[in-house]
Amino acid sequence: MQLQKERFKRVGSFLLSATLSGALILGGNNISCAASGKQGGKVKGEYLSGDFHQHTFYTDGSTSFDFVMETSNNYGLDWWANSEHGGSRNRNGDGNFWDTLNPPVTILGDVASSGGHRVMWRWQSLRDFVFPDILDARALYFDRKIFSGLEWNVPGHEHCSTAVVAEDASAISAFEYQFDKSDRDTSRTGEFTPYGTLTKMNGRSPDQTTIKPSGNDRHADAVAGCRWMQQQYDAKTIDNAWIIFAHIERAGVFQTGSSDGGYNIEHFRDFNNAAPDICFGFEGAPGHQVNDDRGFGNTVTCDAAGNCTSSDFGGSYGGVGYYTAKVGGLWDALLGEGRRWFNFANSDYHRHYTRTDAPGAGDDFYPGEYQKTWVYTEDSDRDGDYSLNEIADGLRSGNAYFVHGDLINYLEFEAQDQSQKVAMGGELRAHGKVKNLKLKIRFKSPATNNCVVDGTYINACAAPVVDHIDLIAGEITGKVKPGDPNYTNASNTTTKVIASFRKKDWEVDKEGYSVIVHHIKNVDKNTYFRLRGTNLACNTPYETGPVTTLPSADYCKPLADALVTQNLGIDGAQEAWADLWFYSNPIFVYVK
């Protein structure tokens, strides 16, 4: 099927609501329309800002579905996804119990209860209630794009953000029923659907009474879920989809026994092998950024030397998880294979940090308030409109970056060899050595961001200004096959910071964008390049490490966020607004 393209008219600026539930929202004055790429004098595409991981009363959020849609709109997001837990819940999107509604609703499936109320299985609420709410929100916010999503409780593992583009929610409903480890309903097993006959492959026994004792068997069910979604995409029973893994370090290492854990690198390789068009990345910067440890709820302890340990690998580093923040670590190992595995960030909004009613304040910013993923979305028919399908294709392309606190609101990163030019996510393929590889970085920061935090820690509400941008490079040595001893290796020792740029290194063009041009001579190895940038100088106490001789994996590295909490007692919001980063996705250069 081909989903009819929904209209998405771009405007020169966003006129944002002044109020949101009685509170002033400050997102309006810092959202700017991204500059357009040009081809043949026609608009080719734009970078659009989004958030695909957020929660409402439908699951474990603390505010209504309508409130979260309104907030996402008022903070100027171009697109977002309702993406919250599978399993079962006892409330609807307004926070009312399903079994007390008047007029009553029919609750399908096996009878189960929670908190003294009957639950509805998520396969039903996704299909019969959430999707109609999404359609209403699309009509209300007609110049935005809203996806139908799910936070998948992955068998054997942690969580995952998914979304499906289709004419209804029957496919994502079937996915949740079959593969979500918290969905113990058996009522649809054997049902014939356009997606095949439904069965249960969710890490539990067929009757759902016990979990499979082997973590590897549960992982196999997770791989089956990825493969199922790829099959639907290939068969065109859906228009598009993604499976992007969430807060990937939080649960620690994978457990082979009866307790679920997190993700090791071999699991990402398995997922990507099974579904290369669907499983193409993770959330390198977790949500819950107001948490004292910037995204993780686990206890983190640091010694006098600044070494931090916990069950989640020492928490986050500059608001970014260890798998991404460590130069030469797990993400770089995947990129060193040439895998098209990309990095994103989201709010994971449940409860805003300013809430004071029971049971207390949350750990979260609103969607679009602090973290954004910007994705280059091509307008395939050049009519100035964008569809859900085109945004999903943009995420898959890797031409995307994520940012904290609107440190930047525009980034171009390109590599050029003679007449061949590619952007983030692109592959430049030369015939032999590249004598002069030209890298161009073009970026801009807004005049203000959404910071409203009182406090003096590193002047937390200063205008966002980039202090420096690091250029990171690593060799591409090819795909590692299952069974190879390196299949479980989560490091790339060739990856280093090879250059760092400060204000003296960039020029400002006539449109007000900062431009860096960097040449690399005689590139004779397959290499990828990526960027990270921050508002902080090197050697900022408890925040960034020292300047080291380049190339270096430790150059001015982000330090564990727990150091600020434990040494200075700064709360999470102050720390988050003071410590801003952005990360690009890679460019792959092949010379062999």
Essential attributes:
592 residues; alpha+beta; 16-stranded mixed beta sheet; 18% helix; disordered N terminus
Q: Over all CA atoms, what is the radius of gyration?
A: 23 Å
SS content category: alpha+beta
User: Helical region count?
Assistant: 10
> Could you tell me the mean pLDDT?
91
Alpha-carbon distance between the two ends: 39 Å
Tertiary shape = globular
**Quaternary structure of the protein:** single chain
Strand content: 25-35%
Biggest beta sheet attributes: 16 strands, mixed
Question: How would you describe the overall organization of this protein?
Answer:
With 592 residues, the protein is of the alpha+beta class. Helix content is 18%, strand content 26%. It has ten helices and 33 strands. The strands form eight sheets. It has a 16-stranded mixed β-sheet that branches. The longest helix is centred in the middle third of the chain and has 21 residues, at 215-235. The chain starts with 18 loop residues before the first strand and ends with a strand.
